Amino acid sequence: MTEKNKLKELKEKLAYKSHHVWDKLDEDEKKAIETLSEDYKSFLNAAKTERECATEIVKLLEKRGFSPASSTRWYHVFRDKVVVAVVAGRKPVTEGVRLIASHIDCPRLDLKLHPLFEEFEMAYLKTHYYGGIKKYHWVAMPLALHGVVIKADGEKIQIKIGEDPKDPVFTICDLLPHLARKVQGDKKLSEAIPGEKLNILFGGIPLPDSEEKERVKLGILKLLNERYGLVEEDFISAELEIVPAGEARDVGLDRAFIGAYGHDDRSSAFASLAAILNLEAPLYTSVALFLDKEEIGSDGNTGAKSRLLEKIYYELLKLQGISPAADIVLDTLFKTRAISADVTAGIDPFYIEVHEKLNDAKIGHGVVVTKYTGHGGKYAANDAHAEYVGWLRRVLNRARVVWQAASFGKVDEGGGGTVAKYLAYHGLDIIDCGPPLLSMHSPFEIIHKGDLYMTFRAYKAFYEAGENED
């Protein structure tokens, strides 16, 4: 063996190197990627809000034999925004649980309590942005209105306008460049479009009585009343969201990517859903948890900070005929192995100054294992223990999953958070694991199909892991 070959062999044996997903696939797996991607796009198109997402998850669960009455393939819905799906394991639940938790809320614009107003004979809706957005992303583009309204008599009205090709769409008007130099051009990017100017253009035809004020607003109220039976006060008891209009699309001449609203975090949610739908008789009881409110800090009774997880564990124990005493619940939580299924930032070659090339995620190199998130000094982070990271390495390697280990940008550039630290509060072992994205938190995020597929493969391997990985 030549010296060159010896060095090559030594490098292959000792050095770490991530691999592009496409270099590790056979033809059957390439076909499987396309099948999964088409199913995922259909899921995204049907689920643009957390409520719609929960509804779609339930539809897919029921098609695969899950039922609220089952003790082996059980699901439950909390307040129409959170879903938990469970496949019973061969071992008693008290010997440990495999939990994957994702979130199904996304950055968006919510309508204010009193949204409808008129200016210069045009009707508008006032909004309050939800989660971390770049406000300039949301102007001069087609938008849709989704949500629910609870009327005074308790009737629930579902609204979705802007998705059917025959529907009108809505928009937020931007200022023409000819007049924008001082108002926008001389300001910081984050200040050029104030939140109070994110007003939705909603109508423009006045009612015929020229003596009446706000004839356009009144015309809109008349239409809402005729179509949905609504009055203006009904906006107060409504959850109406403004989201990008249009469907998920393949991106790139080779169709390598999917562009859509909501990859963060519905890509992880869909991958964990696909994993549990394809799960049969695992060794350990397996749970997929789809949470709300992550984008605004996981607060509220549908977020990860609530006592929802404890309630789920009480139900898991009761399903197996075990008295759910507090000490048994706590002991079961401490024996749980969990994944916080969330996306991370992929390296954007044109903004390399904020990335750390050695430690950030490469697009197309598979699912990302992130030991810690948070920001400078590891603040506000769950930091997974080395023993748990080592266990997950064995699981992924034995399942031949293409994966990479990465963090989230340069140390002093910022950072991000997930539900991991809130679930870790309950004593379980947890680590972040999900696909890398480009254009995260924009109305048109980008994911590589290979990364989505390997995320699904990773979650399935996690659920199926047995005693031989211990």
Q: Could you write a compact summary of the structure shown?
A:
By secondary structure, this protein is an alpha+beta fold. Helices cover 29% and strands 23% of the residues.
**Tell me, what's the shape?**
globular
Distance between the termini: 38 Å
Which percent band covers the strand fraction? 15-25%
Over the alpha carbons, how many angstroms does the gyration radius reach? 24 Å
Secondary-structure-based class equals alpha+beta
Instruction: Report the helical percentage.
Output: 25-40%
Mean of pLDDT: 95
Strand count: 21
Tally of individual helices: 11
Order of strands across the biggest sheet? 1-2-12-3-13-19-15-17
Low-confidence stretches: none
The main sheet comes to: 8 strands, mixed
Fill in the keyword field for this structure.
eight-stranded mixed beta sheet, 470 residues, alpha+beta, 23% strand
What do these coordinates show?
With 470 residues, this protein is of the alpha+beta class. The chain has helices at residues 3-14, 27-46, 50-63, 181-185, 215-228, 263-277, 308-319, 326-334, 386-398, 420-424, 449-464, and strands at residues 73-78, 82-87, 97-103, 108-119, 122-130, 143-150, 156-161, 200-203, 238-244, 249-251, 257-260, 285-291, 337-340, 344-345, 367-370, 374-375, 403-405, 415-416, 429-434, 436-438, 445-448. The chain has an eight-stranded mixed β-sheet, with helices on both faces. Strand 20 and strand 21 (445-448) form a beta hairpin. Helix 6 crosses helix 11. It is globular. It starts with a helix and ends in a 6-residue tail after the last helix.
